[in-house]
């Protein structure tokens, strides 16, 4: 074998040749065979191996050529030159061909991603779903969500969490959909972008919108390819990326390999729903693969795409629920976006565009905006749909709600000290369970027979009959939802639906249309279903659970006369425990307790809503909304009292448990709220009087979970205007738990707590909140230091409510005085600032006086016990004398 310059080039440039010439391997091999440079055996060696892709074939060819020696390698370079000249000449027509295919691709994908809403109530009322811009936040790299929290609860928190993060690290920003669209379609981004958001927050809707936006841009050269993880789950056999895409996009068949080889920088690959991906993603051990033609498992393919080994240079948009974000190592993610959900203004816009009439929209918005728990949940678009469906015709709920509102209004005028206010405080009586009951009822009634005749109101009168008829369907669907929850399963196939899909009365169609979404997998013909929103699954599971309880059956054994069985392990545990108990009341209590404990064992907050719904449905007043569905006389008389005492006892005894984490404790408070516990108001009063006593006596330690509970109780009661938490060992973490309510007090007194700069960051979030009502902020001896003051001063520049700021004994020094001086130049609201004992010297006093030349609103500045010289004090007094509106208090 002769080695010369050509064979050396083949060896040295192997990687480059594989990279650039693999697409010509077939024609090169032909040419080389025709001129005798390679043999028939060589050809079968190169083309053999069914799994080998172009790159593998190219590598084998180069090895063969090197083995054949200098002449074969020279022939190769010669052939390569002529092949490239030939392909160059067809480039112009190729370009035209590409444009035509691209336009066709845009048309097809645009149509596929039209925002079709199958929800017939919605389409009947508003002509389909209109897209409302939604608030997103973006962040370089990757962020992880807070652990231990139900994802639905995280949405409301996300708005404030965002500002907290902004304060502490300064690189999160809110952004609108348009901006994300531009980043993805402009061609300037590459690598993975993670879009996270809780269930129903609108990720898939954003993806649809993005594809439509791109499809409408005639000049966009981006090639968008969109796949859902749900579909990828169905591919069990190894496959090459090229083959997978060719099957999915058969209309791109002729140009796909060219795009994948030469236009990767123009490709945007959307992978929707990472949370649902069933295959493991092993970023450590998955073998590297850079050949789109090489077969591999779907999991390995996804890993190689995300790592940039496969199709380097493409942009990838991954969407995931928050808990699944960590499936991808953060260092591989270029940009993270979170769907924060609808802001209050966007919620209002949603109702305006999705309710049947402006009056209905106004009613729904009025109701939602006066019920804080509802408003928090309405950050999630899917929940907006549930609420608008439940309320716009749900006369029952609206009547009840307006009564609650009137009572709220009667207490709103109150002013004064928190404990006095709490005595009169009224905790609103509408619950989330009420809303879901109205939702189900509205849907059932809407689809009932005789829909064409009579008004919705008339049909509402007939609802007991409709609901009675719906019993078997609701029970079976509920059983499926419950089984899914226990198994942590959210996707069901046709066999899971069993009789439901063949229901002769057609009632189950209601659910298939309104409540279950069909997963339309393009890669296979198999159908699967999932609930419109996980909260709907949790509600139906709770409905089933309570229906079974009230009819004396064991919810854990599945409905009788049906094939649906729960996991054998679970079934055994629950039924053997049940056998040991006697008497229906004890059995009922036992079963509810089991369900509560079951949920508490799951620290992730999964099943939190289920427990709230169970608590709500055990209240006869709430069940009355679904009159007709429940047995008239439940076997168990203990569930007939307004709020069953056994339920309250159970929830209260769980609340006392010392092993409960704060988030589960808050969930128990939610359960008490759903159970319409009349003692909630008392609990708040108790809390506030304990705090009042504590601040007068020796401070004792307050657990973090207590702050969560207090925040929850205060949230339900908007009428308390003064919050005094002096000397309570309250730190930044405690403040974080209280954050939802902090802006809502006129006077916030947090003296003698170890807040420090981190606590100041929390407070600055409250001060910048659009809901901020804080007028007096008392932070005496809270370890702020100059850094804490700097953070607060920045926030106060944006705030126009605080009039009275007390910050004695905080060691702010001259640096802190300088920050306050800067604040005084900008702020026109503050009237009274107290800075006793803060280690300020003449330098600090000078800075403040300079600023006060520009500020004419400050009336009182207390500077006792600082480190001023005699001359400094004299200067301050003279300055004060010259300014009639300003009183500076100072002594040596
Ligand atoms: N921007 C929006 N404007 C109007 N309606 C919206 C918007 N976003 C979502 N929705 C409504 O909320 C429903 C749920 O949204 P979507 O399926 O996109 O959520 P998701 O985040 O993908 O949920 P999941 O994680 O469960 O897949 C949609 O069917 C749609 O009706």
From TrEMBL:
Keywords: ATP-binding, Cell membrane, Cytoplasm, Immunity, Innate immunity, Leucine-rich repeat, Lipoprotein, Membrane, Nucleotide-binding, Palmitate, Repeat, Ubl conjugation. Residues 10-84 form the CARD domain. It is found in: Basolateral cell membrane; Cell membrane; Cytoplasm. GO terms for cellular component: basolateral plasma membrane; cytoplasm. It is a lipid-anchor. Residues 191-324 form the NACHT domain. GO terms for biological process: innate immune response; regulation of apoptotic process. One of its GO terms (molecular function) is ATP binding. Belongs to the NOD1-NOD2 family. This is Uncharacterized protein. It comes from Denticeps clupeoides.
